[in-house]
Amino acid sequence: MRSGRSLWCLLLALFLLAGIRPADAQGSLMRPVVDPKGRFTIDFPADWHVLKPNGGMIAVLGVATARKGPNPASVNVVVEDLPGTLSPEHYAGLSERMLRAVFHDYTPVQEGSATIGGQAAYYRYYTWQTNTGVILYQLQVYFTVDRRGFVITGSTLNDPQYTRIYVPVITQIIESFRPAGRTYVPDRRYAFLQLVNGGHWPR
């Protein structure tokens, strides 16, 4: 499995958030984005800038537009082949080893099994500090379909000015994700929206 490669591919997208400034998130229509290889669809706000890299494991990268300064939030989708059929929880556990090894001051906030858009998944909220001292707040969700893994990572600054605006948007984007094919089905399922503590994001 290429879990190490997937994390390193994420780093470029994540460091775009270093030094971001507050910006008001505007309610906008969602537009569907189709993976060029037909592996999934996902919706982004119409005013987000969406990239589809030609190479690497990042299939789609969406970035919130800013009125001025750096971009305040992003969501990317990584796709990789797995060595066998894994549950989303097992897949997330393998990935966390790399998160702990690479991300400075990596701090898990909350994690667990979920059902997102009717699909079995495993989610993880966490924070970490970049080498410039910026602390990011991220939501990462794992899906598995047969021997294919999907990792969706939403990022913003670990500050209430950002989390209260962008975490709901990130969640909306992630909930629109639809992988192609058959997903792993666990024995127990949990509703994703019930895990946000009455609307207060895990901290």
Question: What's this model, at a glance?
Answer:
This protein is α+β, with helices and mostly antiparallel strands and 203 residues long. It is 22% helix and 37% strand. The chain has helices spanning 3-15, 88-102, 160-175, and strands at residues 30-34, 40-45, 49-51, 58-63, 73-81, 104-116, 119-129, 135-145, 148-157, 178-179.
Describe the protein's architecture and organization.
- The chain has a single domain, classed as Mog1/PsbP, alpha/beta/alpha sandwich (Protein Transport Mog1p, Chain A, 3-Layer(aba) Sandwich).
- Strand 3 (49-51) and strand 4 (58-63) form a beta hairpin.
- The strands form two sheets. It has a seven-stranded antiparallel sheet with strand order 3-4-5-9-8-7-6, with helices on both faces. Strands 1-2-10 form a three-stranded antiparallel sheet.
- It has helices spanning 3-15, 88-102, 160-175, and strands at 30-34, 40-45, 49-51, 58-63, 73-81, 104-116, 119-129, 135-145, 148-157, 178-179.
- 22% of the residues lie in helices and 37% in strands.
- It contains three helices and ten strands, in the order H-E-E-E-E-E-H-E-E-E-E-H-E.
- With 203 residues, the chain is an alpha+beta fold.
- It is globular and about 40 Å long.
